[in-house]
């Protein structure tokens, strides 16, 4: 009888915190920039330079810990993790081994309608390393230290996930929570959220864990899912053919859909950790902890319940809008400016989603304001413009956040309110389309649509279709 296997997965998720400056110096954390321009003696590891802790890093780490149900370590400290690599300028990384800032948390995920908890072993603060850029033309590697010293938290889960679906649900929950906090933008493509997958397999029913591997270089949810399936199959093939799984770190190549070994997996003692002598221990007082707790936002699960009670919009719309803090803020701010909830929801679910897809724009990168969306909805409600013109104007709002009132005025897009001009256009349409007139009078309602189209064309789209429809019916 064929053996059946269970996959056991734990994650190490690195998240770059959205502070303006680095963890131990005043250099900018902005993404991009010419190589080695966001640097100073501290983050390039110059002898004699001393680190000074950025308090905002601690605030954001506490906030993430509270949001993931962790116990906060109110007396914690930093340690040196010693290793030698070209992108690590000091030849050690400042991290937390002995007293991480957060411990013993959990987040709830839902997969196929089934809810379960993924436990969090710990969250610790640390500094990021620089970045190696490999130049194939000169066959050399260059180092960019802009990222060196950017503040990170590492969220280490327990091995509670059993499938790629579990992993994606967990990562989506983490990303959504952290974005709501404003602690990070969590952009996988820019490296501000990175996940390493620890995976092993065991026979179904077995209590013992198998030998695990760690897979790195995963920069999209699709890549993570593919790497998990690939590594599961690789380990099963090894065991079925009588070979052993080797504990090692593997690198995933998403274009080839293949992983290859990078190095054997080190243990903590290989890094010769010791307390960092240049940084004082951190004492998080009860008052400090309460301040961070009081500043926690309304999270998605709470918003979903409130939206259902307050706004008459479908559950599907609520799901999509609350999935992104940016969309939720846009929705709530437009309503606060007087726009009806259902109409705001329709514009987000319809035209906003369409243009996001067409232009490959993430919700977090939307540039238009709730004020301009609310103004557009009012222009339509007041029949200053019709629906067709509104869509045209919204494309400009989406791209350049233009003021719709000014744009409509400057471009002469307001609906023609002149009844005589409208009546004249209707008469011309009736005179020029005798077949459509006969069909309508013969009971074919659809024939009226052709006449409305002719009038709208004559009015260059600047008529109210409802008014055109009504006038044609009266004249016929």
Automatic annotation (TrEMBL):
One of its GO terms (molecular function) is glutaminyl-tRNA synthase (glutamine-hydrolyzing) activity. Heterotrimer of A, B and C subunits. Keywords: ATP-binding, Ligase, Nucleotide-binding, Protein biosynthesis. GO terms for biological process: glutaminyl-tRNAGln biosynthesis via transamidation; translation. InterPro entries: Asn/Gln-tRNA_amidoTrfase_suB/E, Asn/Gln-tRNA_Trfase_suB/E_cat, Asn/Gln_amidotransferase, Asn/Gln_tRNA_amidoTrase-B-like, GatB, GatB_C_1, GatB_Yqey_C_2, Gln-tRNA_amidoTrfase_suB_CS. Residues 329-476 form the Asn/Gln amidotransferase domain. Its EC number is 6.3.5.-. The keyword S-adenosyl-L-methionine does not apply. The keyword Ligase applies. This is Aspartyl/glutamyl-tRNA(Asn/Gln) amidotransferase subunit B. Coiled coil: none annotated. Belongs to the GatB/GatE family. GatB subfamily. It comes from the Bacteria. It catalyses: L-glutamyl-tRNA(Gln) + L-glutamine + ATP + H2O = L-glutaminyl-tRNA(Gln) + L-glutamate + ADP + phosphate + H(+); L-aspartyl-tRNA(Asn) + L-glutamine + ATP + H2O = L-asparaginyl-tRNA(Asn) + L-glutamate + ADP + phosphate + 2 H(+). Allows the formation of correctly charged Asn-tRNA(Asn) or Gln-tRNA(Gln) through the transamidation of misacylated Asp-tRNA(Asn) or Glu-tRNA(Gln) in organisms which lack either or both of asparaginyl-tRNA or glutaminyl-tRNA synthetases. The reaction takes place in the presence of glutamine and ATP through an activated phospho-Asp-tRNA(Asn) or phospho-Glu-tRNA(Gln).
């Amino acid at each position: 009888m064929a053996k059946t296997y269970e996959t056991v997965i734990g994650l190490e998720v690195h998240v770059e915190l959205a502070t303006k400056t680095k963890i131990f110096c005043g250099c900018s954390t902005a993404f991009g920039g010419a190589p080695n321009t966001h640097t100073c003696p501290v983050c390039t590891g110059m002898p004699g330079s001393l680190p000074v802790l950025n308090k905002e890093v601690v605030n954001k780490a506490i906030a993430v810990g509270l949001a993931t149900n962790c116990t906060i370590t109110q007396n914690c400290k930093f340690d040196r993790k010693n290793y030698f690599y070209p992108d690590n300028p000091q030849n050690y990384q400042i991290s937390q081994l002995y007293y991480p800032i957060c411990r013993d948390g959990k987040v709830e995920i839902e997969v196929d309608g089934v809810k379960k908890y993924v436990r969090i072993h710990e969250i610790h603060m640390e500094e990021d390393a620089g970045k190696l850029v490999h130049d194939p033309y000169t066959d050399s590697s260059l180092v960019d230290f802009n990222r060196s010293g950017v503040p990170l938290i590492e969220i280490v889960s327990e091995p509670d996930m059993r499938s790629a679906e579990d992993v994606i649900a967990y990562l989506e929950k983490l990303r959504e929570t952290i974005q709501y906090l404003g602690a990070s933008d969590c952009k996988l493509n820019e490296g501000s959220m990175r996940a390493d997958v620890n995976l092993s397999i065991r026979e179904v029913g077995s209590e013992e864990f198998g030998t695990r591997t760690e897979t790195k270089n995963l920069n999209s949810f699709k890549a993570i899912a593919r790497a998990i399936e690939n590594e599961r199959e690789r380990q099963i093939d090894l065991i079925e053919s009588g070979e052993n799984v080797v504990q090692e770190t593997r690198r995933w190549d998403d274009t080839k859909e293949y992983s290859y070994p990078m190095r054997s997996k080190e243990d903590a003692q290989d890094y010769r950790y010791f307390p960092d002598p240049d940084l004082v221990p951190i004492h998080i007082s009860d008052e400090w902890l309460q301040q961070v707790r009081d500043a926690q936002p309304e999270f998605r699960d709470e918003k979903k319940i409130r939206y259902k009670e307050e706004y008459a919009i479908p559950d599907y719309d609520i799901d999509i809008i609350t999935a992104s803090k940016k969309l939720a803020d846009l929705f709530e701010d437009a309503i606060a400016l007087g726009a009806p909830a259902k109409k705001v929801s329709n514009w987000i679910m319809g035209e906003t989603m369409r243009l996001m897809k067409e232009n490959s724009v993430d919700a977090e990168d939307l540039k238009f304001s709730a004020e301009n969306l609310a103004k557009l909805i009012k222009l339509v409600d007041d029949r200053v413009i019709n629906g067709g013109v509104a869509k045209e104007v919204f494309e400009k709002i989406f791209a350049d956040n233009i003021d719709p009132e000014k744009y409509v005025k400057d471009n002469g897009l307001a609906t023609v309110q002149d009844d005589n001009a409208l009546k004249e256009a209707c008469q011309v349409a009736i005179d020029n389309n005798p077949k459509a007139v006969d069909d309508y009078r013969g009971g074919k309602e659809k024939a009226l649509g052709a006449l409305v189209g002719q009038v709208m064309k004559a009015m260059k789209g600047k008529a109210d279709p409802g008014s055109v429809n009504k006038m044609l019916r009266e004249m016929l």
